[in-house]
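User: I'm writing a short methods note and want a consistent example. For Flagellar assembly protein H, I'll paste the sequence; you return only the structure tokens, no commentary, since I'll be parsing the reply automatically.
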Amino acid sequence: MTALETLALISFVIALAILYWVGYRGGLKDGWSEGYDDGHAKGYIQGIEEGESSSATALENATRRCERLELILIREPQDRQILLAIAGKLKLAADFFHAIKSKGHATQALMLRDHASSMADELNAFRQEDVT
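Assistant:
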């Protein structure tokens, strides 16, 4: 082989390698953009579906809360009075248990009394917030 033929062969191989590399990179870039577009569309659709389901769940939760609040507002004065009566009876029971030297029962009755009183106060605070 002459030098000219060798140079032509090397040039041909280099040109073939460049052509292959350009085709490979172009295909890779097209594949990435197609995959990105497909993934973006699928993610968008999945996000919409998740958003719809979470908004439906949030709406159901809000509806349940509203129903519970309506029940509280309807029954609140009665419930508050009942809780205060319970707290009074528990104070009486605590005094009785203390008189008969039953410290454990007296402590438990006082705890339950405090709990009933705090529940009545929460209902009262809720009513005051609603009025303002």
